[in-house]
Amino acid sequence: MNRIALAAAAGLALAGLAGGAVYLLGTGSGDDRFAECRTGRIGGDPAQLGGPFTLVSETGKTVTEADVITGPTLIYFGYTFCPDVCPLDNSRNAAAVDLLDAAGRVVTPVFISIDPARDTPELLAEFTGYMHPRMLGLTGSPDQVQAASRAYRTFYRVQDPEDEYYLIDHSTFTYLAFPGLGVVEVFDRDVTPEEMAARVTCFLDSF
């Protein structure tokens, strides 16, 4: 079994469940078309999340947010060397996408690496290929990755840069984004695939 498969099977442990500096979404105002879809557990303005970015895809092509968010998109920030959290969260996202596929709703899962020093396009392609055939992996220069992270108000911090096998503390939210609108919802890691699929369906029906 390869390293990625082993990581995906690992149990919940450490690796950085830092809450993350994000603005979380609330129930919305009366003119919010998605008000009935929101959980109400998170408060803030979804318009404050997301924004322009320039990154490198797993194919080596430079892309922007307009190239990536061409339809309903689930976006997660993590890294392939993550021993447990990232594989589990992305497996959950992939399972939700499969449930949506079965219902005829096409959503693209995206994985943005916060570890540009180690996550090459080739390694990202291996990771995303293991997770879901339609998952897109993105990396870039440290400045490009940092800019994307800031746009989505995510948090990440390398624990020990001198350690060859360093871990990274990072936020673990998944963002639902639509072209032309940007981020419309945030999912925490406690949401099940079934719950995510149902909530995404609500947003799609209201889009």
UniProtKB/TrEMBL annotation:
Could you name the domain of life of the organism this protein comes from?
Bacteria
Disulphide connectivity of cysteines? 82-86
What is the name listed in the Swiss-Prot or TrEMBL entry for this protein?
Protein SCO1/2
An annotated Gene Ontology molecular function? metal ion binding
Say which family it is in.
Belongs to the SCO1/2 family.
Q: Name one Pfam family in it.
A: SCO1-SenC
Is Disulfide bond among the key words of this record?
A: yes
Which InterPro entries does the entry link to?
SCO1/SenC, Thioredoxin-like_sf
Sequence positions that bind Cu cation: 82, 86, 170
Protein keywords? Copper, Disulfide bond, Metal-binding
Task: Look up keyword Cell cycle and say if it applies.
Answer: no
